[in-house]
Amino acid sequence: MAYIEPAPISDKENPFESMMSRFHIASQALGLDDEVYNVLKSPAKQVQVSLPITMDDGSIQVFEGFRVIHSNILGPSKGGLRYDMSVHMDEMKALAAWMTWKCAVVDIPYGGAKGGIKCNPRQMSAGEIERLTRAYTFAMAEIFGPDRDIPAPDMGTGPREMAWLMDAYSKVQGMTVNSVVTGKPLVLGGSLGRAEATGRGVMVSALAAMEKLKINPYQASISVQGFGNVGSFASLLLAERGCRIVAVSDLSGAYYNEKGIDVEHAIKYRDNNNGHLEGFEGAEKILGEELLTLKVDVLVPAATEDVITTENADNIKARLIVEGANGPTSANADPIINDKGIMVAPDILANAGGVTVSYFEWVQNRLGYKWSAERVNRRSDRIMKDAFDRVYNASLEYKVSMRIAAYIVAIDKVSKTYKFRGGF
Ligand code: GLU
Predict the structure, then answer these.
(1) Are the beta carbons of 292 and 301 closer than 8 angstroms?
(2) Is 102 inside any structural domain?
(3) pTM
(4) pLDDT of 100-132, one tens digit each?
(5) Which of 223, 248, 271, 418 has the highest count of CB atoms within 10 angstroms of its CB?
(6) CA distance 8 to 204
(7) In this structure, is residue 266 part of a structural domain?
């Protein structure tokens, strides 16, 4: 094949390099022609803005804001908005491409995008975050739009920020446009089931994978890294289905209880404790790193990128990894995990429940209608289960890992669509 191999991946993990190396392997397995490879390998648009914000003390601080649209071949681009100090252009490019593949894997009519602001929301007041969100939206007013590019929550953002974004965008347009953003509060046109959607999709993927591995959920032990929106709901829903959650963690550390953590209690504790688990007594405190290498049936990394690397992959003892986060396994660690015979339900499959219910939210907004929680859950469960089966079957057909199979399913769909649409 004529396309140029990506440069060898550096030792220091870079999410964009990780994404590209999987894209390359899957493209080869699929026999993708080099023209389409070149179209899909680079983002369609990259925007960077400087946002001067008046802080509460009267000083002016300048923040960097980003939005990367990787592709709008399948439809308007879709993807979250991240507030974190780690935000930089390469991370945004990787996360935007992952959204393209994710939407294609679950077969919803969206392209992929990602946005972010380099900031530490934990050290900012609500007023400062509000001004920053409104300034960012104003700067992106030409980029966003219900038929162009639709943001949603990601790390460091939630319904509150989405409400400000919707309001700022609507003010620019001179009318209420609630379908410009998803993950909104219910009263603004948010969808029932959206808050728990990513965790619920993780649960559906985990149960589907356990069935293939003949792991009985009632006898399964699970450790979950990250106790934010994804990790906490995934833990709760898996516990409700009989699984034993033996470890959870957040920025304050990791918490282990062999008999199983009372997840409902842990969530209540976190909500009354400034959003973290420090001091949680239902478990023994262990090192964050230890959680990843516990002897469990299932490991759910649901925190951030590059936590399973060449440094620790060999020590992982789980039989199944279900990726709640985006990019938790570096590409360099993939062969180690594969050689150990560990099954991976990859990020672009396992955490796609969030964007699936975002799609339902957008559909409801455009219909001017509201679905029941049952309808949302039933439809998203079916989409997740169908996607799992598609990826599993592709892994058998192409004799590749579940991760590469997910990329194959996605690239196949996007490239076929591109060929029908054509370029200039
Ligand atoms: N930020 C979430 C993700 O990475 C949700 C994106 C969305 O709903 O558009 O999948």
Answers:
(1) yes
(2) yes
(3) 0.95
(4) 999 999 999 999 999 999 999 999 999 999 999
(5) 248
(6) 35
(7) yes
